[in-house]
Amino acid sequence: xxxxxxxxAILEEIAMLLEIKGENPFKTRAYYNAxxxxxxxxxxxxxxxxxxxxxxxxIGEALxxxxxxxxxxxxxxxxxxxxxxxxxxxxxxxxxxxxxxxRIKVLHDExxxxxxxxxxxxxxxxxLVNLQGFGVKTQEKVTKGIEFLKRHKGEFLxxxxxxxxDAIKNRLVSVAAPEWVEVCGSIRRRKEIVRDMDILVAAxxxxxxxxxxxxxxxxxxxxxxxxxxxxxxxxxxxxxxxxVVRREEFPYALMYFTGSKEHNVRLRxxxxxxxxxxxxxxxxEDERPLPCGSEEEVYKALGxxxxxxxxxxxxxxxxxxxxxxxxxxxxxxxxxxTFHVHTDFSDGMDSLERMVEGTRRMGYSYIGISDHSKSAxxxxxxxxxxxxxxxxxxxxxxxxxxxxxxFKGIESDIQPDGSLDYDEEILKGFDFVIASIHSGFTMKKDxxxxxxxxxxxxxxxxxxxxxxxxxxxxxxxxxxxxVKLIDAAARNHVIMELNAxxxxxxxxxxxxxxxxxxxxxxxxxPDAHGVAGIGDVFYGxxxxxxxxxxxxxxxNTQGVNDIKDTLKRLRDAKRHQSNNK
Length: 581
Known about the structure:
This protein has 581 residues and is of the alpha/beta class. 44% of the residues lie in helices and 14% in strands. Helix 1 runs parallel beside helix 5.
C-alpha cells in the first residue's frame, strides 16, 4: 500500500534536490505543489491502483508514472539518480532551521561546503557574514541550527514512523500469528520522538521470520543477523530490530522491550523484594519459572494493576498501579468531534463543505472551524466581511443538518502586546476562539509569558493554541514556563489545546498530568488544513493517554449539546471574572 506521507515526502525531497542543483524553478515548484496536493488526498491508494492520478490537478503523465513506479517497486529511479548527483551530506543540511535549498546552493557554490562539519567551521570563521543573502544574524541562526541538528541527530517523528511500523507488523502476520507480533519500544509507548523500531515475534524458530524480515522492500541494509536478534536499516533511515522469542517468553519480552528502561527497573526491584527475578525471558523464583500467559498476568503476579504502555515512563504509574488508582485512559472512540480546522477561506486546502463532509464521514458529530485571523496575512487571514460570509455558510449548513453541527471559531493571532485580532463586536460572534502565537518567537521569556497570559485573560479566549509553538525536530518552542501558563489557564477558565499534528504534539505530554491536577481541560485538535489532516486526532489521543487523560478531562469527548453548554459556561465565567476586576 502506498502511504500519503511517504510519497509526499519523496516528492518534497525531489523538489529540494532540484532546488539545490539550481534546476528550473517551475519544475521544482511542480514537485512541491504535487507533494502538497497528494498529502490531502484520502483515496490515493485507489487512484494509483486505477491509474487515475492524472485526474488530480497538478499531476501530469510523467509524475503519475513515477508515483506508480514507487507504488509497485518501493523505489523511484528518478530520485535515485538525483541522489547520485547531490551529495547526501549536502541534503543533511536541510535539517538546519533557517537554511533552505537556495542558501545551501550558495554555500556549496561560493564556499565549497558539502557537509555539516565544513559549515560549522565556516561559521566559526565568520565566512557566512559577507555571502549574498546571509549576514551576521543569519550566521548566528545557522550556528544555533547546527547545534539543534546535532542534538536531535538520529531521531524521527512518531507520525512518520508509526505507519511504517504498523505496515511491517501487518506483513509479519503472514509468517506468524497476529497475537504473536507486536511493535515495542517508544513506538508502543507513543513517544513523540523515536530513535529506533523494535519488533517482537514469537515463533518456534527464527529462520522463516528472519528471512522474511530482511527480504522486505522497506529494508535498505542488513546490519546484523542472529538467532534471536536481527537489525536492519530501513529506507526511511531508522534502524529496526527484530527479536524472535519462544511463545512462553513472549509476555516477558513484550514488557521488557516496551520499556521504558526506568519503568523496567522499578518492576525488577518489586520482583527482587519478593525474592524473584524478572527479565525478558521470564519471572523466576530461584531458577523455577513462574508462568504468566500475558503482560496482565505478569503485573498481577507483581501485585500491580496492568499499566497501559503509554504510561510506562516512571512518572508515578507504578505507585498508582500498587494503590489501584491508575486512570481509565481516554480512547480514540471517545472522541465525538474536533476543533481547530482550517478551510480554503484562509490557508486550508479544502472547502468548508468538504471539511464538514469529511469530518462527518469519520463518524464525528461536530466540527469547529477556525481559520486564521486578519493579521495573519501570510495565511490569508479573514477580514470581517469574509468572516460574515463564512458565518452565513455555517448557518445554512446547520439549518440543513440535525445530526451534525458546525461551530463558528477563529484561530486569532496573539499580538505582541497580548491583544487579540478583532474588536469585541466580532469576537462575541464566535462560538469559540483559539488564541495562538505565530510571530515574535524570540521574545524574552518574561515578556512572552505576559503576552500569553494577557491573551488568556481576554473574556473571549476559549483555548490556547499550540502553547509552546514548537515544531518537533525543526524548531524549539518559545521560552515560557508551562506551569505558569497552566496555572493561568486554570484561573482564566481557558482550555489548553493538545495540537495533534505529529509535527507539533503541543502541549507536551509531560505537562498534561499537571493540567489534569489543576482542573484544566484539554481539547485534542488536529490543526487540519485538509480533510486528511483530521485523522491526526489519532496522534493526539496517544499523547493524551501518555498524559494520564481520561474522558472527562477532554473537551471533545462531549456531545454537541454538552459542548454548547461547556462553551457557554466558560464564556460566562470569564465575563463574570472580567467584570469583577
